[in-house]
Amino acid sequence: MFGFVVLHYLVDDATAQCVDSILEYCGGESCRIVIVDNDSANGSFERLQARYAETPGVTLLHNAANEGFARGNNVGYRYCKSQLHCDYIVTINNDAMLTNVDFMPLCTEDYAQTHCGVIGPDIVSLKDGRHQNPSYGIIRTRSEVNRQIRRFRAILLLLHLHLYEPLVRLKQRLGHQSAADSPYTHATAEADANRPYKLHGACLIFTPAFVQHYDEPFDPRTFLYFEEHILWMRCQTAGLTMHYDPRIVVKHVEDASTDSMSATTRRKMIFTLGNYVRSLKVLGTYTH
User: Mean pLDDT for the chain?
Assistant: First the structure.
């Protein structure tokens, strides 16, 4: 049995597109879908309730507060494990869509061959066509965590002092990279077996080995960001491997919910970087 957890916040059109893609490619007796609403206050949850009221295999859960990515997905994962007794649990962003009619058979084949803990598909960004899996920029030492915290705190200070934008314009004129470049190493379309990689959080397939070991996939201390790094650490701790399968393709629109929440670029940057710092502190508890 496959359980799909779709975390919803505000944008019901995106969530419906995601859910409909699951129903199209994986619908049937062996598939269950759990939509978890992170306390949307715009009527979108009620619209989803009406839309899927008569759809077999679709359950809607409502959180009393916005729990963020980790805790919100944990709610759906726990429901899939304890109530629906799913063998495989897939967490998928509401701005992502399945494309494979053989999604479930490929996952079970991968697990039979590798006995891995987590499977990652080829996630293709609809913004720029970039392949977002796998990624090799894993932050796994205490010194690197601290360096990134200092870096993001410095950018936050510049933003609050309204000095960041002039500095970026100056650096651009001088031909330097932006100070806010992501710490992530860009993904490639091929996995290097000799290098450890993490898997993008837009779609993660947790296999029976992982589901049997963990009651929650994500550390509940984070709200948003760096969940992939922490998940890599959790797999290392449990002796579980990650497996990238380019045969499974997921399309990713990107940032539908966070874009709807933060209207301006500056406000969104402050929101993002603040959560970067908080999540990095959590990641630091896994490092040496």
Answer: 90
What angle is formed at CA 204 by the lines to CA 218 and CA 280, rounded to 5 degrees? 40
Can you list the domains of the chain with their CATH numbers?
Answer: 2-130+189-255 (3.90.550.10)
65 pLDDT band (50/70/90 cuts)?
Answer: very high
Rg of the chain, C-alpha, whole Å: 19
Dihedral (Cα; 217, 23, 15, 72), 10-degree rounding: -20
Instruction: Quick: pLDDT tens for 76-107.
Output: 999 999 999 999 999 999 999 999 999 999 99
Number of neighbours of residue 46 by Cβ within 10 angstroms: 14
Give CB contacts under 8 A, 24+ apart, made by 263-271: 266/159, 266/164, 266/165, 269/155, 269/159, 269/164, 269/180, 270/156, 270/159, 270/160
Whether residue 195 contacts residue 46, with contact meaning beta carbons closer than 8 Å, is answered with: no
Which stretches does DSSP call E strand in 117-260? Answer: 118-125, 203-206, 242-252
Residue 33, SS3 per DSSP: strand
